[in-house]
Amino acid sequence: MFRLLRKSRPEKQAWERDKLPRHIAIIMDGNGRWAKQRALPRKAGHAAGAETFRRIATYCKDIGIEYLTVYAFSTENWKRPAEEVGTIMALLEKYLHEAIEKMERDKVKMKFFGDVSVLSPKLRKLIEETEVLSQKFEGVQVNICVNYGGRDEILRAVERYTKDLSDSALPKPKRLTEEVFSEYMYSAHVPDPDLIIRPSGEMRISNFLLWQSAYSELYFTDVLWPDFDEAELNRAIMSFQARDRRYGGVGK
Ligand code: FPP
Known about the structure:
Layout: E1 23-27, H1 31-37, H2 42-63, E2 67-74, H3 82-101, H4 103-106, E3 109-113, H5 121-134, E4 141-148, H6 150-166, H7 178-182, E5 195-198, E6 217-220, H8 230-241
Parallel strand pairs: 1-2, 1-5, 2-4, 3-4, 5-6
Helix pairs in contact: 1-2, 2-3, 3-5
Bound molecules: farnesyl diphosphate (FPP).
């Protein structure tokens, strides 16, 4: 319904293939402002944002990114008007239907981070089906954060760890190390994001991947999410490749 006029080709890429980030995470921000600039309803911004997500996920797969994590709905987004929440959930449903239909063609492994137990039974079923059907695929893994909050994730991990500790039937978890704790997060077995991108000019992390972002490189751009494209991602990757990642050490 709300078609986008887009450049069809990415700007010539200038990044180095052997230094690509393994894991890119994106805060898909700016949908509302994009719609406002065009005197459209906010739902048009979210619909355009969902298109951008499809486009960027495909590009990540094509260039060989191993993991893409996107923030689709936070634990705080329930504060939005019910109509807007409904729009985002409906877009997710639509996307999952399509993803299931095109799964054998696209071969994208999909996971969901967040407490999905409170979502509608229909959406929960689609999420489960998508995760199960796509688990055999290797190549790119797309993690969609729904009803996700970084603090909430940490609290849940603590709860699950202490429950395992007190469960006499279970072998005792090993001493609590960062590696052991990471296995209690939604992101268990997923490497930390190398690059976190936030479009729309906002420069904050907004409760996204708080534990996992300890050493992520951050990239901010004024472009609104629905206008984000392959050329923008190329720019973010080039910026990433120019960084000196020292992890608290002294570097080269
Ligand atoms: C933030 O922009 C965006 C969201 C809270 C929703 C993101 C959802 C989608 C892109 C659609 C569904 C997702 C998938 C994976 C199919 P905002 O509304 O806060 O923008 P604003 O700050 O300009 O108002």
